[in-house]
Amino acid sequence: MDGAPAPLRCFSERHAAEVFADDGVETVTSAEQKKVEHNIEEVISVYKQIHSLPQPTLLREQHYQYLKKGLRHLSDSYECLDASRPWLCYWILHSLELLEEPIPAAVASDVCQFLARCQSPTGGFAGGPGQHAHLAPTYAAVNALCIIGTEEAYNVIDREKLLDFLWSVKQPDGSFVMHVGGEVDVRSAYCAASVASLTNILTPKLFEDTPSWILRCQNWEGGLGGVPGLEAHGGYTFCGTAALVILGKEHMLDLKALLRWVVSRQMRFEGGFQGRCNKLVDGCYSFWQAGLLPLLHRAFFKEGESQLSRQRWMFEQQALQEYILLCCQNPAGGLLDKPGKSRDFYHTCYCLSGLSIAQHFGNVDLHHELILGKEENRLAPTHPVYNICPEKVAQALQHFHQLPVPEADQRHGASSADGPSAPAASSGSAEHQS
Ligand SMILES: [Zn+2]
């Protein structure tokens, strides 16, 4: 971007007209909404007073220091995440790769050894050493290891046992429970499809009936709920849609209803996304919601939709960048939900991931950047299906596709005719989102 910086949307006169109107009926949620808008208005007005030339800055160095420290030491406030330790590895490593900060070899090796201790003897990864295997930390651990991307990292994953674990949580109706004896929701289908496709253990038999179960989660709102019949929700909608993309069945969704639902979740005043209808803006939905737009763009492209832009996703990319850069950064590093909330590694990861989606349109063949502020704000692109950098996805697929698909399927009644499959995401489709 050369010449004068582009004017900020939140500096324009029209912006004030976007505030919430309660039509004279005050409710608990309308009062909360007004409070959030008021806080954001204050943040913007302070920014205006200090900066005559609006150039929102990504606090790279501060975020880097915050992340680097988190890899080695966590404060007491993270005690509650003792069963989510592979998640902390993933959130931090992915944030660092988005910032294009290399991970020192010694740290990478320590993370590999730690994740190896989280791997359950029955397959899959647990939230911490000695705990039970669970699909969520399994997803986080596999993603973290693929980000590291060394032989040592790939070798941590026991693929045969991982496949056994996936079979142990598969349900007859096509859904998955999060852990043996645990709850069913659409996150599990995504976690299972993601790790299975990345490590080349995905077979049609393992995901038999899974697409039709996920499709039942899409409701009249257009988005997906956690299980059939529940309210549409950003996190579940992303998980269900991304799982269908991996399984090559996203065209079976009502894509237009989904598009309408997700674009309506971008807040008119704040610029960020809410997770559900009538909820407040939250920085982490910058990824869970905005990350749906690349998936939808590609799905519409595959359908032969001729009206698609070749430069922009179908959401306000600049408004989202303004929200993240002005409202979600802690001056001491780390990102957050909304002004007044504290920073954490989860929000740091998903705010940065959303910022990356908002900055980069397209894929390897067709790429268009829209970087708000200085060029230094530019993050690395992220893969919208796996949410790790695209080259790390390609590298993992290349590595694991040299290895045979383990035989566990036969023990679970699949005929050999099913054979090893090429998952949709590995045939390059996920790299071609537009
Ligand atoms: Zn959040």
From TrEMBL:
Q: Which residues form the Prenyltransferase alpha-alpha toroid domain?
A: 58-388
Which residues fall in a compositionally biased region of kind Low complexity?
A: 413-434
InterPro entries this protein is in? FTB (IPR026872), PGGT1B-like (IPR045089), Prenyltrans (IPR001330), Terpenoid_cyclase/PrenylTrfase (IPR008930)
Give positions of region: Disordered: 406-434
Q: Does the keyword Zinc apply?
A: yes
Names of required cofactors = Zn(2+)
Highest taxon, organism lineage: Eukaryota
What are the TM regions of this chain, as residue ranges?
none
Question: Which Enzyme Commission number(s) are on file for it?
Answer: 2.5.1.58
Cofactor notes: Binds 1 zinc ion per subunit.
A Gene Ontology cellular-component term: protein farnesyltransferase complex
Repeat in keyword set? yes
Tell me the GO BP annotations in alphabetical order. lipid metabolic process; prenylation
| Any one GO molecular-function label of the UniProt entry | zinc ion binding
- Keyword annotations: Lipid metabolism, Metal-binding, Phosphoprotein, Prenyltransferase, Repeat, Transferase, Zinc
Q: How does it assemble?
A: Heterodimer of FNTA and FNTB.
UniProt cross-references to PANTHER family, sorted A to Z: GERANYLGERANYL TRANSFERASE TYPE BETA SUBUNIT, PROTEIN FARNESYLTRANSFERASE SUBUNIT BETA
**Role according to the record:** Catalyzes the transfer of a farnesyl moiety from farnesyl diphosphate to a cysteine at the fourth position from the C-terminus of several proteins. The beta subunit is responsible for peptide-binding.
Descriptive protein name: Protein farnesyltransferase subunit beta
